Each structure stands twice: as C-alpha cells, then as structure tokens.
Amino acid sequence: MYYFIINPHSCTGKGLKIWHKVQKELDRRSVEYKSYLTTHAGHGSELAKHIFYENEGILKLIIVGGDGTVNEVVNGIPEVERIHIGYIPAGSSNDLGRSLRLSKDPIENLNRILNSTHIHLMDVGLAASPDKKLYNRFLVSSGLGYDASVCKEALRTPLKTFLNHIKLGKLTYILIALKQLFARPFMEGMISADGSTFKSYRKLLLVTSMIQKYEGGGMKMAPGADPNDGKLSICFVHGLSKLRVLAILPFLLIGKHTGFQGVETFDCQELTVKLVAPQVIHLDGECPGDFSVVTFTCLQNKVQLLQ
C-alpha cells in the first residue's frame, strides 16, 4: 500500500495536474494506494500524523508537491524511522529534487519509487529555540536573515503566482532577492559551532544551515554539501556593504561565492546563533516566525527515501 499526500495548489495548480497524471498511471498499473489532498497551511503535517497513527509497521508515504509540502509532511511524522518516503517534485523551486537529481518527468519519478529496490538514507536538520517554540525538521536548508526574508516575501507575493503561470517561477526569488537586499537591515549577533567559544559579528546578512546544495530555486549556497555525512554545511555573510553583496550574488547562483572575503563556509554537526534582535527564519522555504536564539543540528541518516 502506498499513501500519497498531494498539494494541489503547489506551483499555482501544477501539483494537481501532476497528481492527475500520476493517478492515471497508478490506476493503469492497478497499484494499491490511498490519496490525500492538502487544503490549507499545515495540512500536510496533519495528514502525515493521521496516516502514521492509523497504520502499523513500515509505511510508504509519497509526497507530490514542493519543498514546503515535504517540510510539512516530515514535521508531521512522529517517528521518521517508520516511514519510507517517496518524492515527486511539483513545486516552483524544487531544490530537494534538484539536489537529489530527480527527473522533471512525474511518471519517471513514480516508476523510480514503485520499482525501488533499496532505501537511500539521508540526513535531516533540526532547528530549535531554547523555549522549544521552534522545534522543526528541515531537509533542504534553514536560514536566519536575508534568505529567510526572501522566502517570506515569496510566500506572500502575487508576483510568484504570475511568474509561475508563465513558467518563470524561478525569477521570483531573484527579483525578491534584489529587493530585500536593500530593504532589510543587517543583523548583529554571535555564532558558535560544535560547542566552540561564541564569536561576535556585525553587519551579518544571513546565517544558513544546509543539508542539500541548493536553496531559493536553484541558488548553489553550499556546493560541497553532502546529505549523508552527518554535517551541516554553513554559509554566513558578514562585514560587507550591500553593493559588495550585490556584486557577489551572481557568483552565489552558480556556487562560486565561497572564496570571497566576508563569505564564511564550513561544516559542523551543530551551530548556535544568538542575535541581538529576533529575525525571520525559514525552513525549506517555510517561515514559522522570528527568533533571536536558534540551534541547528544535523541528525545523520534519519530519513529513508525510496530511490
């Protein structure tokens, strides 16, 4: 039995169109399945929890949607060890699919899942605040500051809907990134990796913890990221003028930003960030609120993917 959670509104209705193709193929092949369509924000988590508690043993749970849908589902599963996850990308950014080198053809992805002969283990990130008001998993990335502001506006702007309609959805993140660069102030705070002494930074632009190589619709934030090494790939930018950041942005798109002064990259198992003022955070493009103290942790090989 396969359980499908579908976001029909993903990428301005693309999710539903892809699901119809997948459903037709499932019926043609007489595959036993149950399907659930999300109707509101957070519904993916609710459905995942329902499926988990209503069934026993190892479950095959297939997600049709974007990175945000995957994030909802993974955060709704009480014990990820009991779930074998399949993924059919249907979002506007699809950074998880891009990092995993998944096909753009939904039927090819379905066949890969149905014909899977082994489980691919993958790391999962955890972002937590001291009061546990934030305690969320992420599979792609989580960041504080600039990239989170871009994600937050992308979730709300009608521009994304328009650009998705004309198949230029990736431009959403680029245009908003240019706007947010000059609209938002820099941050100030301290950073500690793997229990090291906190180091203070001024003019912090962003602090990002990566599991995968890509975020923001294809920006290669962590070109050396390995989703199986038990490490977060950290990128943070500090001490630069906004014009200097603007000059570096094109290199960020192709993963050639790591050699610039003011761009710090390294791997660690745990990162704690303490900011002077609360800042918006994103997890796989979803923005649950503003926080001033966050610890990011990598949990090695926690997610089981049908490959």
UniProtKB/TrEMBL annotation:
GO function terms (MF aspect): ATP binding; kinase activity
Domain of life: Bacteria
Keywords: ATP-binding, Kinase, Lipid biosynthesis, Lipid metabolism, Nucleotide-binding, Phospholipid biosynthesis, Phospholipid metabolism, Transferase
The DAGKc domain, residue ranges: 1-131
GO terms classed as biological process: phospholipid biosynthetic process
InterPro entries recorded: ATP-NAD_kinase_N, Diacylglycerol/lipid_kinase, Diacylglycerol_kinase_cat_dom, Lipid_Phosphate_FormReg, NAD/diacylglycerol_kinase_sf, YegS/DAGK_C
UniProt cross-references to Gene3D superfamilies, sorted A to Z: 2.60.200.40, Probable inorganic polyphosphate/atp-NAD kinase, domain 1 (3.40.50.10330)
Named cofactor requirement(s): Mg(2+)
Family (UniProt): Belongs to the diacylglycerol/lipid kinase family.
UniProt-listed NCBIfam families: YegS/Rv2252/BmrU family lipid kinase
Name of the protein: Lipid kinase, YegS/Rv2252/BmrU family
Organism of derivation: Anaerocolumna xylanovorans DSM 12503
